[in-house]
Every structure is written in structure tokens, then in C-alpha cells.
Amino acid sequence: MGDGDAIRTSYAEMSQQPVDWDLSDKAVEPLRKQQTTLANSTSISGPGTFMGKATRTITFEPTDMEGWWLDRTDLPGSLPIRVGISNVWTTGQIVSNIVLRSGNPHNYVRMVEHLISLRMGMGVDNLMVKLDSGDPPLFERGSLDLIEALDRCGRVTIDKPVQYVTVKEPVTVGGTYGDFVTLAPPDDLENPQLTVDCAINFNTAIGQQRIIFPVCEELTRMASVARTNTSLTKVIYCATLGRLFADVRNLGYNTKNVSIAGKSKYMNEPRLLHEGKALEAAWHRAVLDLLAAIALIPNGQFVGKIKSYKAGHRLDCELIKQLYLNQVVVPLEEMNGAH
């Protein structure tokens, strides 16, 4: 989907962009055989993302249901929301984010990406997340607080096999800003993994950043501290004209929980430096945003290769939707059989 010529041009641009951190040779564990859920429950609280003056609480609980689920405890009678592409409501207007909704229009959860992205890296297949509102907490340490909460719960193995899926062939969705996302089958069907090649290019201090890595628990933990990045221009907008809009007026962003980039320098200290270059924005894009979209594939754990250039939530979700509209998601064992 998209303009083929524009996508080819963007592919050429990405191939010319240097790789800042190449972890493609990192050894990772083989794919898990059996499903898992949590051994215990735990709760965690913080200021709201969209209502920064309010305290919001989420609770992680084990579940017998397959997949990840979001349950609004403040809406009795509403069914839990399955984390899946069919329940994506919007990817935001002023504030870019993935919003999941099911049934009742009030039964939604905003800014779910920093939470559901952990489905891809933390080895938890089945999870119930209970929330006291549709506005999850926003933490100063990115998603590290959520990972530490999952750690406190422990894991138990379930007598059900993990289902792995991939795509039949490479598929690409291109956007209108020179952006694209490509999914492809794994190169090694004997030892398949999920690998990411992610490049961004901002007209701010963030500039060009590119990382290549396999998805694993160690790198998910490392990248979890990466915060949402925003420009100084948008910060000024939110503090002035943006106050006219409900989505922005009470936004919980501050100088500690977001990375702010001016034209030539950061307004606060960036994280995840490698060889003297801050790669926080690339890690945030790759792990906490892009993998959140991959987590929306509900019928199994995706394995294969992901290539992303200058893309965002809208294009990510469009790609996942197109996978199902075009019926290109297949069980991994079918690919093994074909080879």
C-alpha cells in the first residue's frame, strides 16, 4: 500500500543512512515453547498521561484467557478490551498515540503503546491489565516502572503452546512523508527471531538515528527508559494555543517524562547514549512504539524482520490492518512446511 516510487526513494534514503548501533549479532534465547501468565498480581500508580494532576493506577493480574486484555474497573458491566488491531479506535490527532476501544464508546484506553509493547519483549503471553480510567499513568522512567512491576509478579507456564506467526512474503505500507514500514519472513526458519531495523530523521537536535537489533528481554529492559520525544515548538504550542483543546489542556508531560528537542540541542538530558550519540528517540520509536503495533497481531507472537523509516503510529496500525485485509499472516509452521 502506498506510492511505489516514493517507497523506493525512501528505501534508498534509509540504505544511505549510517547505522548508529548494530546489535544484529547479539545472541538471543530460542523461541519459547509454552505460554505464560503471571504468578501474582501487583499494582502501580502515577500521574495521568492526559490528566497530569490526577493519580492513575493499573494492576497486572494473571488470566486464563489467551492474549493481553485491558479492563476498565471504573466501567462496571463493560467487557475487557482485547489487545488487537480490530480494537484500534484512533491514533490520535494532536497527541499521537494508540487508543483501543471495544463496545461502549466510553470503554477505551488511550496511550496504550508504552504498555502493550511489552507483550513483545517480556515473555508474558496472557495478561489482564486493570485500569481505573482510560488514562494510564505516565512515568519519568519510560516503561521501566511497568517492567519492574511485571518482575514482581513472576511467571507461570501454561500447558498451551505458543503460537508463532509471520508473513507469507515481504509486505510494505508507505505513507505521505517518505515514511514506510516493511514486514518480512525470518531469514533463518531453523532458528527464527524477531529483528528490527529502525531509522528516524528529525529536523531537530534528534537528527538521523538508526539502530538494528533482535527483540529480546535484555534489550527491551534497556530501551524501556526511552521517553516520548517532542519538539520545543510543540511544547510552546501546548502551553499556549493548545490549552484551548481538551486533549492538551491537562497533558501530564513535563521536562522529566518526555525528551524535548530544540533545533540544535536538547532542552533536557537525553538518554541511551552510544559512542557519544543520544539514541533515545530511535529506541523509543523502535521498542515502545513500533513493537506496540506488532503486539496488535492478536493470534500469536510475530517473528520475522521489521524495517521502519520515519514512520509513526498511524502507518504502523495501517500496516497491521492491511495484513488481515490481505490475509498475509500465516502460522510459522506453514513457512517451515513450504521450505
Task: Describe the protein's architecture and organization.
The chain has helices at 4-16, 113-116, 144-153, 217-223, 232-239, 246-249, 280-294, 313-325, 332-338, and strands at 21-22, 34-38, 42-47, 55-61, 68-72, 81-82, 88-90, 99-101, 108-109, 127-131, 155-161, 164-167, 171-174, 180-184, 194-201, 208-214, 228-231, 258-261, 273-274, 277-278, 301-302, 304-309, 329-331. The mean pLDDT is 91. Helix 7 runs parallel beside helix 8 (313-325). Helix content is 24%, strand content 29%. The protein has 339 residues and is α+β, with helices and mostly antiparallel strands. The chain contains nine helices and 23 strands. Its EC number is 3.5.1.108.
Radius of gyration: 19 Å
Give the CATH superfamily of the largest domain.
lpxc deacetylase, domain 2
Low-confidence stretches are none
CATH class of the largest domain, named Alpha Beta
Number of strands: 23
Oligomer: single chain
Strand order of the largest sheet: 1-16-15-22-14-13
Number of domains: 2
Distance between the termini: 27 Å
H/I helix tally? 9
Main sheet characteristics: 6 strands, mixed
GO molecular function: metal ion binding; UDP-3-O-acyl-N-acetylglucosamine deacetylase activity
Keywords: Hydrolase, Lipid A biosynthesis, Lipid biosynthesis, Lipid metabolism, Metal-binding, Zinc
Catalytic activity: a UDP-3-O-[(3R)-3-hydroxyacyl]-N-acetyl-alpha-D-glucosamine + H2O = a UDP-3-O-[(3R)-3-hydroxyacyl]-alpha-D-glucosamine + acetate
Function: Catalyzes the hydrolysis of UDP-3-O-myristoyl-N-acetylglucosamine to form UDP-3-O-myristoylglucosamine and acetate, the committed step in lipid A biosynthesis.
